[in-house]
Here is the input.
Amino acid sequence: MGARKHTANRVVLLGPPGSGKGTQGVALAQHLGVPYVSTGELLRAQSGHDTELGRAVAARINGGDLVPDEMLLDAVREPLAAAFEAGGYVLDGFPRTVSQAQYADRIGAPERVVYLAVPDDVARQRVAGRSAASRADDADPDAVEHRLQAFHSETEPLLDFYDDRGVLARVDAAQPPALVRAAILDALAAEGRP
Ligand code: AMP
Here is the structure.
């Protein structure tokens, strides 16, 4: 009997808007039987509250800017802690900065970080295509540009951060969703670098 390959189940999905993090993340969490946490969803829920925090979060999201760490942690600390304690998780949209990655390390580092790579033009087209589905930050081209910029300047440094420790896998996310899903599962079953 061959040794059964370990499949990583503490997984972070990284990628620009429109890379399919939500679609793939929900399906993957179901497949692995672990919690799915989208900080974007948690923040959008927060932004619906008529409070100072809710209004401040809404302004950032609608402008396509990252929510500053203090505000972010107010909204996501507990669901993140619960996911980390569950022993496995799929995180969509967190961490998005090196300081957030350091926070994640303190509560339970990911075993595998999957980078869903799509060119900016594909990202723009996909976001425009779903913009009728009522997200103000999808419908506003300026907000979409800010989100792409934030990805390049704040989140891309995480690719080296996680590659240096041998847990990064790059997946071509411009492919059809079923192929992306298969590539993600392959990446989770593959050995990381020692
Ligand atoms: P998403 O649903 O992942 O596209 O996120 C939508 C928006 O939520 C982003 O453009 C940010 O304004 C905010 N957001 C989500 N996750 C984070 C995070 N980890 N750090 C800062 N802002 C975030």
The domain at 10-187 is CATH 3.40.50.300 (Rossmann fold). The chain has a mean pLDDT of 91. The chain is about 55% helix and 10% strand.
